[in-house]
Amino acid sequence: MTDAMSAGAGSDLGDAGARSAGVIRVMGWFDRWGVLLMVAIMAALSWLAQPDVFLSERNIFNIFRQTAFYQMLALGQFIVIVTAGIDLSIGSVLALSMMCAAILADGGAAWPLVIIAPLLAGLFVGTINGLGLTRLHMPHPFIMTLGMMFIARGATYLISGGRPITGMPPEVTWLGSGNIEILGLHIPVSLVIVVITFVIAWFFLQHLRTGRHIFALGGNPQAARVSGINVDRTLVIAYALCGFMAGFAGLLLAGRTNSGFPNAGEGDELVAISAVIIGGASFFGGRGTVLGVFAGVLVIGMLRNLLNLSNVQVFWQQVLIGVVIIAVVAFDVFRRRLAAAS
Amino acid sequence: MTPAIEAAQAATTHVTVETPIIEARGISKRFGQVVALSDVSLQLYPGEVLGVVGDNGAGKSTLMKCLSGLHPPSAGEILVEGRPVRLASPADARALGIEMVYQDLALAGNLRIDENIFLGRELTRRIGPLRIVDHKANQERAMEHLDKLHIEVKSVAQRVEQLSGGQRQAVAIARATAFEAKVVIMDEPTAALAVREVRKVLDLVKDLRMHGISVIFISHRLDDIFYVCDRVMALFHGRNFADAPLSEIDRNEVIGWIMGNKSGSDVPAGLDLN
Question: pTM for the whole thing?
Answer without folding.
Answer: 0.86
